[in-house]
Specification:
Length: 111
């Protein structure tokens, strides 16, 4: 799945129900694009050091740490979004497909 297919899929499964993960993630991506930029940057750095497998949780916690220590604005990373950030990263960088281990998501059917 490429990046456009990923966003189109999330758009197709989103609902107006409170707590819809797809809706919340799409809104978060529109309003906080820098969070994923940091996730992407730190993922690429991790790949240089650990080319076989990486931890999306480790990357997310680094985003939290780095932004808290070096930026006026702290970038929040919801634990609910970490698996979606990992999938988006691999969709944007297909050469790294499978770098992050992902499981079937219960809150978004089909991912």
């Amino acid at each position: 799945m490429n990046e456009n297919e990923f966003f189109n899929y999330l758009d197709s499964v989103k609902t107006n129900e409170k707590g819809c993960l797809a809706t919340e993630f799409l809104y978060h991506m529109r309003t906080n694009p820098a969070t994923f930029q940091f996730f992407e940057q730190f993922s690429l750095q991790m790949i240089q050091r650990r080319p076989k497998r990486g931890s999306a949780w480790m990357v997310a916690n680094r985003v939290r740490w780095e932004t808290a220590m070096t930026h006026d604005e702290v970038y929040k990373v919801s634990n609910d979004f970490i698996a979606l950030y990992a999938r988006l990263f691999m969709a944007r960088h297909p050469q790294h497909e499978g770098y992050f281990i992902t499981k079937t998501m219960k809150r978004i059917f089909g991912l």
